[in-house]
Amino acid sequence: MVKAEKVSIxxxxxxxxxxxxxxxxxxxxxxxxxxASHYVVLFDFVAPExxxxxxxxxxxxxxxLFGGLTLDALFRPGRWQILENRDxxxxxxxxxxKTGASDLGNIKVEDFNGKRSRVxxxxxxxxxxxxxxxxxxxxxxxxxxxxxxxxxxxxxxGVRLGNMVSSEELFGKWESTGxxxxxx
Length: 184
What we know:
Layout lengths: L13 E6 L4 E11 L2 E12 L7 H6 L2 E7 L9 E6 L4 H4 L3 E3 L8 E3 L6 E3 L2 H6 L5 E2 L1 H11 L20 H5 L13
């Protein structure tokens, strides 16, 4: 009889480790979900695999390096190991996105959940990115490349956290009840 593997379905706040193949592991956290994808961040923190579980607080204090919407493909087989669930300040990490097409003159900005939107300023239209989902392996390999464990590829640039505009910066604080305040 074949023993069924435990399937880990990530939840908001889940802290997880990513084995890097050299005896160390990186740490990430699920910030929020959007449809079938999860917004995750990977922190500038690495520890020996056998110590990472006891150093979660240190990891969560580190600078977030990489992030984005991704699917649960590496959680399901247990490659990304969920360690525990911790509170997460989603306002700190969740980006705003733009929608529309500049050729049509209908660029809007919207919050992470897609519940609030407004016409984008020219600056926002040029500097805020469209919503996209990245394969989880891109995030994992970006972390490895950051650590010098493999070469850097241009595909990793899209998951590097830099001058992200957060939903809170554009739309202010929102209620956790899912209420929306849409303006146009």
